[in-house]
């Protein structure tokens, strides 16, 4: 089978590519071609004839889409439209795996969103993701393609370094102490967040690429079974894996960041995702241990090099 | 104040234009300019400097958007994007009144949709309308404009002649007998439909153009208080206004049409629309009487001319 990954140089794109290259197969079928792209405007050859699966992971993320409306619209909407049109030119409708986001919902600490919750985004990125879901459900109904849109939770633990994303601290409070560095926590310990690990996200993306979609009907969107956890529980897991590390996390209230993340849904009831075969989430302590196993050393080296 | 009507030659556009021209004012403010456009691609001067209100009624309707995906996407999506961009060029964010549709929902005979119902369209037209709502809520949040999206019910009684729209018969079973003509009813008498009269739709559009939007928050979409009625009740109202007329309606089951309309939501619980000041619907018999008063003679003349 022939697979294209759009946004292949992103955090998840690299992992999906590595995993597919290592496996050599998807859903029991041998991979004969793996096409990787990572630029804003889709080139004509990103979806070659005979493509069976497209991972559409390319996106301008939330902060950037909010800061530059035209850029977000061009990449997140026009980019997806170009993918849809490329699919229409293929002989067989390919599977399209699209990364949507919990940012397509409003919410808050008190809510548990069901599978039929309405998407009322509070930012342009979430708006563009909700629109992408609608375009892909319609394009699937018309048999231009065969889509699965995954509303990914906040992914922890991201490697790399702290950035200006409002969600940066959710990874930072694990990653930085494991690197021996102090970091700040801008929200109370009982603040809840809907998360998934990189391992789980990659597993879901591969399941979305190979699953039977006939049970999905008109609705090609799935809220996969992430996990609602408090910041305090994340710190407890960190402490389990590396006793004493949590002491490097300093409570520094930041109302600006707290206001943003307070609008995100803290929990979902992902019955449909479970029924469609998306694997349930591993425990928090496994997420921290997986970061240590998969990413800690490379993160340390990367940061040592760029600090040098 | 300066008003633009895009789609001004359509059924509702003409009525809104006539009403504004007759009133000379909107929301207590004198109208100093009324710009009317009705073509697919928005010309640069459709939204002149100083525009206060834009009625965006231009659309490729359901059957056409389903038959020609590219045309629907160009007019219903790119057209709206052009309106948004035109608004960004104005000094003050104008009010944008957008006609969305019940076709943006799935549903069926058994459901009553609440104001928080998820939009899961079963056709490309409804998809494009749901996307339009998302774009306009986001553009309002960003203060590019100040939108109200009205999800209009099936409008009865439309003047003119029967057409190939699946919904054509809902108007036909009133209009045709009042013209002395036989017509067919493709669904059972107990089939329910969510309707609004042309008079009510125009009143809602004018309210949307002049209301205070500060209570709407992120959600700029409204399901106005239409009315859920059965086909049998429509025929009873016809019989009240013109005894004997309902005998011209012949029951001829049409499974193809019945299948399409069976997917439309038959009822809404429009609490938010009522709270936002959208007027409740007049009784069915008034709808039939209003058609006789407003449209019957002109429809008779138009059809006599084109039949001659």
Helix percentage range of chain A: 40-55%
Rg from alpha-carbon coordinates of chain A = 19 Å
CATH superfamily of the largest domain in chain A: NAD(P)-binding Rossmann-like Domain
Q: Spans of chain A of 5+ residues with little confidence (pLDDT < 50)?
A: none
Using DSSP, what is the number of strands of chain A? 13
| CATH fold annotation of the largest domain in chain A | Rossmann fold
Q: Structural class, from helix and strand content of chain A? A: alpha/beta
Ends of chain A: how far apart? 43 Å
CATH class group of the largest domain in chain A: Alpha Beta
Query: What is the string of SSEs of chain A from the N terminus onward?
Result: EHEEEEHHEHEEHEEHEEHEHHHH
Biggest sheet features of chain A: 6 strands, parallel
Q: Estimate the global geometry of chain A from the Cα principal axes.
A: globular
The helix tally of chain A amounts to: 11
Main-sheet strand order of chain A equals 4-1-5-6-7-11
Known CATH architecture of the largest domain in chain A = 3-Layer(aba) Sandwich
What is the multimeric organization of the chains shown?
A: homodimer
């Amino acid at each position: 089978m022939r697979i294209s990954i759009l946004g292949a140089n992103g955090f998840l794109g690299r992992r999906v590519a590595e995993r597919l290259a290592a496996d050599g197969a998807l859903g029991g079928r041998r991979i004969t071609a793996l096409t990787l792209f990572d630029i804003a405007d889709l080139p004509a050859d990103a979806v070659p004839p005979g493509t069976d699966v497209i991972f559409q992971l390319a996106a301008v993320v939330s902060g950037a889409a909010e800061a530059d409306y035209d850029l977000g619209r061009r990449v997140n909407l026009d980019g997806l439209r170009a993918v849809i049109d490329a699919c229409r030119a293929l002989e067989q409708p390919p599977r399209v795996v699209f990364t949507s986001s919990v940012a397509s919902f409003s919410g808050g600490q008190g809510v548990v969103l069901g599978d039929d919750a309405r998407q009322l985004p509070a930012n342009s990125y979430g708006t563009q993701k909700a629109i992408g879901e609608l375009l892909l459900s319609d394009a699937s109904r018309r048999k231009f393609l065969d889509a699965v849109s995954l509303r990914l939770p906040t992914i922890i633990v991201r490697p790399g370094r702290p950035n200006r994303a409002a969600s940066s601290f959710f990874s930072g409070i694990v990653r930085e102490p494991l690197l021996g560095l102090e970091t700040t926590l801008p929200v109370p310990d009982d603040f809840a967040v809907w998360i998934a690990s990189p391992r789980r996200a990659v597993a879901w993306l591969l399941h979305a690429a190979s699953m039977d979609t006939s049970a999905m009907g008109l609705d090609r969107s799935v809220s996969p079974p992430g996990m609602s956890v408090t910041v305090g529980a994340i710190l407890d897991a960190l402490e389990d894996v590396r006793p004493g590390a949590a002491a490097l996390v300093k409570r520094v209230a930041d109302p600006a960041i707290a206001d943003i993340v307070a609008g995100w849904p803290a929990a979902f009831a992902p019955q449909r995702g479970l029924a469609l075969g998306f694997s349930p989430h591993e425990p928090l302590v496994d997420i921290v241990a997986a970061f240590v196993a998969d990413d800690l050393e490379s993160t340390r080296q990367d940061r040592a090099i760029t600090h040098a």
